[in-house]
Write a structure and sequence with these properties.
The chain has helices at residues 7-18, 43-48, 106-114, 147-152, 162-170, 196-214, 224-231, 237-240, 258-263, 268-282, and strands at 130-132, 138-142, 177-180, 218-222, 245-247, 250-255. By secondary structure, it is of the alpha/beta class. It has a domain at 126-282: Uracil-DNA glycosylase-like domain (Uracil-DNA Glycosylase, subunit E), CATH 3.40.470. The chain has a 6-stranded mixed beta sheet, sandwiched between helices. β5 and β6 (250-255) form a beta hairpin. The longest helix is centred in the C-terminal third of the chain and has 19 residues, at 196-214. The protein starts with 6 loop residues before the first helix and ends with a helix.
């Protein structure tokens, strides 16, 4: 037996061999040593006995065998319950206001605007979207109706607009058609942030149809807020006032609001010059 085995294993192996057991069982797989190589005989001995080999003295070699050990049973664990996945929240559909149809007559358009629900009007008194003449060679586009206009339901009907309308007649213009960028004035006439660009986009089909139905050939825009919302971009008021530009395919000019003109008489020459431009663009006289 190989000297590499521990003493107890040697004794156990010897006892098993004495009992006639071919397989020796240990607690762990046992790899027995390789048999020692044979020592060749001297040439004279090989010629005398060619089929025999001489083994070195010592105990008989032991065959190397690996004794498999059964794997230990792995304790079963209870399956982890699946965590329910919460369904993804469903977004409410975006409700877009219906498109504004094209009308052939001003009365049909007025009835449609009166029943409009495209904007939230809970804190508004009423819609005021038009005024002046039903047809005219020029159209005045204002931001929204002022407090005095809410009583009559007509744009530019208050005392604040009297001096402006008198000046327009003095240069030879007839009464204009009037439309608003925002059909429904806020409670505070000085606060345009209540409505802003969203309502301006929703109201746009109304004033553009009034422009078309009026037969206007030119547009006069009042003040810089109406100018910016009607053009859809920021503009430099000082550089833009009195300068000709294009709006909805028609020539247009921007001027001071009639309320400013009524408070500041020094603005009259500039407003008159702007009105004369409109007169030249329309080629009309009162």
């Amino acid at each position: 037996m190989s000297a590499s085995l521990p003493a107890l294993q040697k004794a156990w192996l010897r006892a098993q061999r004495d009992l006639g057991c071919d397989d020796v069982i240990f607690d762990q797989p046992l790899r027995l040593p390789e048999p020692e190589p044979e020592v060749p005989l001297a040439p004279s001995a090989q010629s005398a006995h060619p089929a025999r080999s001489v083994r070195p003295a010592g105990p008989a070699p032991v065959r190397e065998r690996t004794i498999p050990v059964a794997p230990r049973a792995t304790p079963k664990t209870a399956p982890t319950p699946a965590v329910p996945v919460a369904p993804a929240p469903t977004r409410a559909p975006v409700l877009r206001p219906p498109a504004v149809p094209e009308f052939a007559a001003r009365g049909e358009l007025d009835a449609h605007v009166e029943a409009c629900v495209r904007c939230r009007l809970k804190e508004r008194a009423r819609c005021v979207w038009s005024g002046g003449a039903e047809t005219s060679p020029w159209l005045v586009l204002t931001l929204y109706g002022w407090a005095e206009d809410l009583t009559t339901g007509q744009l530019l009907s208050g005392k604040y607009a009297a001096s402006f309308l008198e000046l327009s007649r003095s240069v030879g213009l007839p009464d204009p058609a009037v439309a608003a960028v925002l059909c429904c004035p806020p409670r505070d006439p000085a606060d345009v942030a209540v409505q802003g660009r969203i309502e301006a986009a929703r109201c746009r089909p109304y004033w553009t149809q009034i422009l078309r139905l009026s037969g206007a050939k030119a547009v006069l825009v009042l003040d810089h807020k109406a100018l910016q919302l009607s053009m859809g971009r920021a503009v430099d008021w000082k550089a833009f006032r009195g300068r000709r530009f294009e709006l909805e395919g028609l020539p247009a000019v921007a001027t001071h609001h009639p309320a400013r003109l009524s408070r500041t008489a020094a603005l009259a020459p500039e407003v008159e010059a702007d009105l004369r431009q409109i007169l030249s663009l329309t080629g009309s006289a009162a």
